[in-house]
Amino acid sequence: MNKLKKLSKNSVRKKLMITFILILIIPLLLLGYITYQQSANSLNELGEQNLRNSVIYTNEMINMLNEEVEEGNISLEEAQEKIKVMLLGGERSEDGKRPIDTNIDLGENGYIYITDEKGILLAHPNLEGESLWESKDSSGDLFMQDITDKALNNGGGFVYYDWPLPKNENAIEEKVVYTQYNENWGGWIINASTYIMDFNAPADTILYQILIVTIIFVIIGVIIGWLFSGNITKPLQLVTNRMKQLANGNLSLDPVEVKTKDELSILALEMNNMQTELNKMILNITEASNTLNQQSDGLNKSSNEVKLGSEQVTTTMEELASGAEVQADHVSRLAQMMENFKEIVSETNQQGTTVGNVSMEVLNKAESGSNLMQSSANQMTKIDQIVKEAVEKVRSLDSQSQEIGRLVSVIRDIAEQTNLLALNAAIEAARAGEHGKGFAVVADEVRKLAEQVSASVSDITGIVSGIQTESTDVTNSLEKGYSEVEEGTTQILTTQKTFTEINDSVKNMAEQMNNITTNLNAVSTRTDEMNESIQEIASASQQSAAGIEETSASAEETSSSMEEVSIQAKQLNSLASRMKEIVSHFKLN
């Protein structure tokens, strides 16, 4: 209801009126704005042209009067005063002011004035004789200096600045000046000045007229729009009221008549058709709900009867299922026991196989060990022979080193005798004097060689002594090693005999394990056959029990379904009654 109230506030008539007013106002305002801007621009151009023409005309008059002065017809002062009177409309009064010539139309506040190059006013309505050179406008600009610069350096032109109105000094408006320089009479600067607002006064009048016309057109448009929107909204109101009555369930009303030949008449016609179709549909629903109510009562009775029969079947099947479950349980236990026995036999068989494999590995290791021991015995025999030969060779080396020591001792004795002989020869050579010098040199060299031989023999003696000591130690070590080798050879031969006995025992054990494994395989095969038979019996018992349970479950599902059918039949009966109640809300033809 609140939503309808909100929608009613945004009525079609109101929207049409707003649209109609906007269509009128927007073009008129745009047209008025464009017209005002064009008028203002045109008036500004005309005003500026008027200022320019006034200055040019004044310059021409000055040039003409200057010719009169040059010809001697009038004096310079008379010519200058004549120009001032012509521009301002009268002679200067006692208070220094001059009237403004109304024949020169420069706007309400426009006039022509003359300055020199220093900004002194030579002709002015109020300030003649004063200087505006340092005067500033509202923006702080030295406007008189700008005007003078424009006249002297640019050949003349327009200057714009802000200045208070004569009748209201608090009101600041934009002012325009056209300036031009005349070199006669000491250099006069002619200025035509006025306010921009004086140019735009006619444009403001046009703007007021446009606003008045716009208001008149809006009022006329509102009246026309109100009448036009009424022709649209009245048929819509009829249709809306009829839709409200249809929503309240009143389908017994006469068709709505709309006299227009547009979409509104089509809308009314379609609404009448909808009312007719709703009337037919409600009648059909009423008949269907009555039939549905009757059939739901019959369905409820039938479902109750089927429910009782299915409950009896369920009770019987539950008893059968209980007996089948007991039988299947016993068979399942037997099957489980056989399965456990089978697993034990299988595990024993696997262990026997494992022991057999381990026995074979032990047998292989024993044979390998026996072979290795045989090889070790052969090696020890060879080592015994080699060590024996080494002992003999070291003993021979010790004898030879002792012989070398004896020979070295002989050589050392010879070297000592040679050294003594060389010393005696040197003594005899010294006795012989000059004749014995050559022999003395030879004797000295022989002595040196004998000393070197003696030193070398000492080194050899040390080396031979070391060799004898080492060879003696090696001989002792080899003799001890030979004893150990003989003992090791004896132990290896004993170990080889032990390995041969172990190998024979392992062979016997492997043969026994093979026999055990063969017997276990036979037991496992018979156990598998027995287990398969028991499994088939258990499967059959379980299938029988499952079939009985499925039948019992189906009976229970049937009973449950029939109970649901009974409930749904009651709900259907309730819905049919509710449908009749809803349909009775409508008023039918």
Automatic annotation (TrEMBL):
GO biological process, one term: signal transduction
Gene3D superfamilies: Methyl-accepting chemotaxis protein, PAS domain
Keywords annotated in UniProt: Cell membrane, Membrane, Transducer, Transmembrane, Transmembrane helix
Domain of life: Bacteria
Residues forming coiled coils: none
Annotated ranges, domain HAMP: 230-283
Residues spanning the membrane: 16-36, 206-228
Keyword Cell membrane belongs to the record: yes
Signal sequence bounds: none
Tagged with keyword Coiled coil: no
CDD domains (alphabetical): HAMP (cd06225), MCP_signal (cd11386)
Compositional bias per record (Low complexity), positions renumbered to this chain: 537-564
Location of the region described as Disordered in the Swiss-Prot/TrEMBL record: 537-565
Ranges of residues in domain Methyl-accepting transducer: 302-559
Membrane topology of this protein: Multi-pass membrane protein
Localization of this protein: Cell membrane
Record-level GO cellular component terms: plasma membrane
Family stated for the protein in its record: Belongs to the methyl-accepting chemotaxis (MCP) protein family.
PANTHER family the record matches: LYSOZYME-LIKE PROTEIN-RELATED, METHYL-ACCEPTING CHEMOTAXIS PROTEIN MCPB
Protein name per Swiss-Prot or TrEMBL: Methyl-accepting chemotaxis protein
Protein species of origin: Gracilibacillus boraciitolerans JCM 21714
